[in-house]
């Protein structure tokens, strides 16, 4: 074991030298450049660079990419994060192959219910998430009308959970002005708990409308198309897990590649 | 504390070390029971068995799958520490049950059995963190630290919850604590300590509301990179910890083997399974306690509550003597 370990280390650092300089090139324009000489990459993974933390002390900055394939994550979204500890200090959002899903016909309530399931799963409530997924499947298979009473029951159950309220209350509260500036739908105002309740209300209303034969509500979908431009700002300063809760709470039905995709947004 | 020699009048028989195999078997059976129950409850939530590995047989299917799965590793993983972390949970659970008397038999009749249990549950801090650290992956490490954050919230309340029965029984010997509950279980007249203890068990088993360390929101956290046998051992360790925690509550709070008709050992098992079922069910009812928020609950609510409980118990104990 020991022997192996030593060998691995040696090999790693040799390789690392080469990789390190490559990495440095990629990251051109970063403040990290002046550390270039010290930069090593054991096993081909560059070491974290130092950076100033919120308290003014130096702390390692680690580059972590979230997505595009991740459970309970908006499809196709890639979030390039700079982490200090588990806090996202800088983020840049992009979309992988945005056009591929234009003709996706899973719209309306089923998509909304799926987003509810994701948020519940991220909040660590497997049971309620499983129930939401089951309702989503009912909505897809046997028509949305059939899901009505079950959805109502899920809404009651979620509303009754004071632990969930305590957990999501106050997470990334958005004011009217902020929501408008980020081009978010009006129902994104409030905290993550408010947004979850909004999702449930919309799903219940959507299912009821479809059952009544009102196809018009489906056009609501257009309002739930968000641009990647505005996502990165929303998660900066949050920790990884909270950031995922916040993104899931936006009830994203469709993502648009933003114009500012190539600019790194600074917090 | 009393002179240690006064504790040799413990009502417990120490069995030969070979019986440890049997204890391990019982622990394993309890862990499997918990896993089967969890599988059954999960299937109910999904509505029907759902998929080929649904329902109560899920743990067996899952175990078979993991045993065949190829063991992945990550670049520059700290393998030794990683494996120690993953396998350590199971070992810790086994060490915990060595001081739990099964009716009148125990493997170690330690005078400081309560402290022994406490020391084992603190070891879980290191083990979960090492599992997160060893993989050399960002999500794993975040998961490991999330467990420590939870630990800061739950550990002190858990310790003080264990103090309550020890004060009332005036001993740290587990068998003697069980024997001190003649007529009235400690769970009945120290409910706060009992509830906080149960929360602590869920917490050191990384279970239910205390699972953010391995949560979906950090992509599996500490266990994100575990695969194959490593993952199987880690999961088995969690269920075993849950079972060991439930088993230890029986002599501490539920009167040990006391009960009508059945022999002592059977009562211990019945009570353990009942508590285990409650703990497994808890996961269905509660969302995760996010570590950043739970810290406040631990220090501002649980700790004062359990300290007050200790005070009440101490006053009653003095008054009774």
TrEMBL record, chain B:
One Pfam family named in its UniProt record: NADHdh
Q: Which InterPro entries match?
A: NADH_UbQ_OxRdtase_su1/FPO
Keyword list (alphabetical) reads: Membrane, Transmembrane, Transmembrane helix
The way this protein sits in the membrane is described as:
Multi-pass membrane protein
Molecular function GO terms recorded: NADH dehydrogenase activity
Give the chief site where it resides: membrane
- Location in or out of the cell: Membrane
GO BP terms: namely: aerobic respiration
Where is it found, in Gene Ontology cellular component terms?
membrane
Q: Mark the transmembrane ranges.
A: 20-43, 80-102, 114-135, 147-168, 188-207, 239-258, 264-282, 294-319
Q: Entry's PANTHER family?
A: NADH DEHYDROGENASE SUBUNIT 1, NADH-UBIQUINONE OXIDOREDUCTASE CHAIN 1
- The name on file for this protein is Unannotated protein
